[in-house]
Amino acid sequence: MEKQELTIPNHVSIVMDGNGRWAKEHGKPRTFGHKKGAEVVMDLCRDADDLGIKYLTIYAFSTENWKRAESEVRALMSLFGTYLKICHREALEHHMCVRVIGDTSALASDLQDLIRVLEDDTRDFDGLHLQIAINYGSRDEMLRAMRALLRDYEAGPFDAKDLDESMFSGYLDTAGIPDPDLMIRTSGEMRLSNYLLWQHAYSEFYFTDTLWPDFDKKELIRAIEAYNRRDRRYGKAN
Ligand code: FPP
Description:
- The protein is of the alpha/beta class.
- The protein contains seven helices and six strands; from the N terminus they run E-H-H-E-H-E-H-E-H-H-E-E-H.
- It has helices at 19-25, 30-51, 70-94, 109-122, 138-155, 165-169, 217-228, and strands spanning 11-15, 55-62, 97-101, 129-136, 182-185, 204-207.
- The protein has a six-stranded parallel β-sheet, sandwiched between helices.
- Strand 3 (97-101), helix 4 (109-122) and strand 4 (129-136) form a beta-alpha-beta unit.
- Helix 1 packs across helix 2.
- The protein is globular, with a radius of gyration of 18 Å.
C-alpha cells in the first residue's frame, strides 16, 4: 500500500510530564530531570518546525506548581532564566515568534525583563510560534480575561449580545493564536491539569507513557500518526 502523507497539525500543545520520575529512575535529583527536560524542549522546537507545525505551546510551570518544595521552585525559575536566554538566540536564528502565557507579574523582575525582550524582539517573526506557559492556569487566565473585559465594559459599555466566543478569546493570553489541534501529555497521566481549558474544546488528545526527558522526534511523529487516525468533526484547521 502506498504510504499516505501525514496531515500535520497546525498547533500542538504539550504537557511535559515525568521529569521527576525520569530523574529517580536514573538515580539523580528531580532538578536533573527538569534540566534534561529543558534540553528536550530545544530539540523539539527544531523538530516541530521541520515537520511543518506552525504553533507549539508547552506547559512549563502551572499556577499550582508554586506548592512544590521551595528548592525545586527555585531551581525551575533559574532554569527558565537560562532557557529564555538560549531561546532568544535560537529565536533570532530561526525566526521563531515566542510568547509567554500565564500571569508573569508574579515572576522575579529579571525573568519578566527577559520575557519582555524575548517577546519584543521576536513578535514579527513568521517561523515557529512558540508559546511557553509559565505561572499558567486556565481558570486564572479566564478570570484575568473577565476582569479585563469588565474594565473595558466600565470604560465604554457595549451590548451584552456583542460578547461572543471570538471577543472572549481576544481577552485570553492566547489571543490571536489558533486553538490546538493536538494535545500531547507524557508520562501516562491522563489529565488536563488546568491547561488551556477553553482552547482545547475541540482538540484531539494523545497520551503516552514516555517520560518527558525521553520524548523525541520519533515520539512526536507517533503522536501525529495517531492524530491522523482520528476522525475530526470540529475544530479542523487544515
Ligand atoms: C513535570 O514533571 C514537569 C514540570 C513541572 C516542569 C516542566 C519543565 C520542564 C520540562 C523543563 C523546563 C522547561 C522549559 C521551557 C525550560 P514532574 O516534575 O511533575 O515529574 P513527575 O510527575 O515525574 O514528578
